Amino acid sequence: MLISPAYAQAAAQPGGFTESLGAFLPLILIFVIFYFLLIRPQQRRMKEHKAMLEAVRRGDRVVTNGGLIGTVTKVATDSELQVEIADGVRVRVMRDMIANVLSKTEPVSGGKPHKGEADNDDADGGGNGGGQGSGKGGGAEKLKGLFSGNKAR
């Protein structure tokens, strides 16, 4: 027939600690490999990113998690920065949302910086997208001057 009879098996000898360890050894080995290949490098990257965020100061060029590139104009609080993303356009950004620091500035020695120092990081004029009015004093500056001239009247 197709059904084989089931026979009782002999009782297993107690194996002790070594047999139970042998059963869990592959699982433990996989966990150790995951720890050294995945968890430790991620912890190191998080530690470096946290140190980078703590070192952000006024004048640094940063990239946000949303892809916006701008210059830090003010460190408002421990968790908030003011970033200028275009001429005269300043937004508040949470410090944790900074993805990368593109260029760092030297720390100011001896007190308050002079007026206008934070705006001089783009002196080559190569950050406004090009076009006919590229560089300082281009088309955007002329339009800005026209609008500010109308307010004075």
Question: What does it look like?
Answer:
The structure is a single chain. By secondary structure, the chain is α+β, with helices and mostly antiparallel strands. Among the domains are: 41 residues; 49 residues, SH3 type barrels (Roll). Helices cover 34% and strands 20% of the residues. It has 2 helices and 5 strands; from the N terminus they run H-E-E-E-E-E-H. A 5-stranded antiparallel beta sheet has the order 4-3-2-1-5, with helices on one face. The protein is rod-shaped and about 90 Å long. About 16% of the residues have low confidence.
**How does the major sheet shape up?**
5 strands, antiparallel
Helix segment count? Answer: 2
Mean pLDDT: 75
Measured distance between first and last alpha carbons: 108 Å
CATH architecture of the domain at 57-105: Roll
Estimate the global geometry from the Cα principal axes. Answer: rod-shaped
Radius of gyration: 31 Å
Short key terms for the protein model shown above:
153 residues; alpha+beta; SH3 type barrels; 5-stranded antiparallel β-sheet; 2 helices; rod-shaped; transmembrane helix
Give a nutshell description of this structure.
The protein is an alpha+beta fold and 153 residues long. The chain has helices spanning 17-54, 139-152; strands spanning 61-64, 69-75, 80-86, 89-94, 98-103.
